Amino acid sequence: MGHHHHHVDSSTGKIKVAFFLNLGFTIIEIIGGLLTNSMAILSDALHDLGDSLSLGLAWFLQKFSNKDHSTDFSFGYRRFSLLAALINSVVLIVGSVFILTEAIPRLMNPEQPNTIGMIILSVLGILVNGAAVFRLRGGDSMNQKVMTWHLLEDVLGWVAVLIVSIIMTFTDLPILDPIASIGITLFILYNVIVNFVKTMRLFLEGVPKNIDLEDLIEKMNAVEAIKSTHHTHLWSMDGDHHAFSTHVVVGSSATKEEICDVKDSIKDIISSIHLDHVTIEVEYEDKPCSITEPKNE
Ligand SMILES: [Zn+2]
Ligand SMILES: [Zn+2]
Ligand SMILES: [Zn+2]
């Protein structure tokens, strides 16, 4: 349970490449969207502009989150990438609302876009976003998961634009352009909100969803030498690296050996969880807790 183990982390370099790919492609998209008069492409361009900003921010913040502990940030810098994920979500929610206000009026007044230009841009979009997903895959931080899923959605969005532009090439249905734009945006908005809720749960120090704290407490109380437990807390730094603290009460005449056994038993109980910080306070039955009354928990 040491504080100094490290994952081999190449995610910063991956985010950097994704950032420059995305930024370059955004410029091509804006020009292409204006030239083809396609709402679907133009809204994707605005969307990718938001992506580029978020990626740049994530790249910058992840440099900090990989640093070790300091006396300024005693838990380390993992939560900096959580902050990046939160800003990411906010930028994308604002961007999606903007896209909708642009695309909805086009439903009443559709304009025929240049569908051949749209086909070329969608194929390019699939290639660029596909390459970014390929580079980011395998990351395990909350921030990287948000981005990998997001880029995957972008690929699917471009596939949808490709299909729509092929249909519009052979039919007179210009309304498909704003419909595709709105559909893609609503899908992205839904996923962003789901991720936003997850990020907020981490900020609010909720118990990670895959961990049953009640079960852990029951197991601790089942250890013979443990009379009771209180102030048991389990929270997460970034969705993958967790922290745990608890107070355990032992008999008033517990020996050093018994106390060491109690600690070993607790470490066994929590061994399956990826914990970076573990604090176990041992208290004697006849010595009241020095922090607060258990009922105030
Ligand atoms: Zn995107
Ligand atoms: Zn610690
Ligand atoms: Zn206590």
TrEMBL record:
Major location (coarse): membrane
Domain Cation efflux protein cytoplasmic, residue spans: 208-283
InterPro entries in the record: Cation_efflux, Cation_efflux_CTD, Cation_efflux_CTD_sf, Cation_efflux_TM, Cation_efflux_TMD_sf, CDF/SLC30A
GO cellular component terms, A-Z: plasma membrane
Cation efflux protein transmembrane domain segment(s): 15-202
Keyword tRNA processing: no
Keywords, sorted A to Z: Ion transport, Membrane, Transmembrane, Transmembrane helix, Transport
Record Gene3D superfamilies: Cation efflux protein transmembrane domain (1.20.1510.10)
Subcellular location as annotated: Membrane
Chain ranges passing through the membrane: 17-35, 82-104, 116-134, 155-173, 179-197
Record bears the keyword Membrane: yes
Pfam families in the record: Cation_efflux, ZT_dimer
Top-level taxon of the source organism: Bacteria
Membrane topology label: Multi-pass membrane protein
Name of the molecule in the record: Cation transporter
The species this protein was found in: Halobacillus locisalis
Lineage: Bacteria, Bacillati, Bacillota, Bacilli, Bacillales
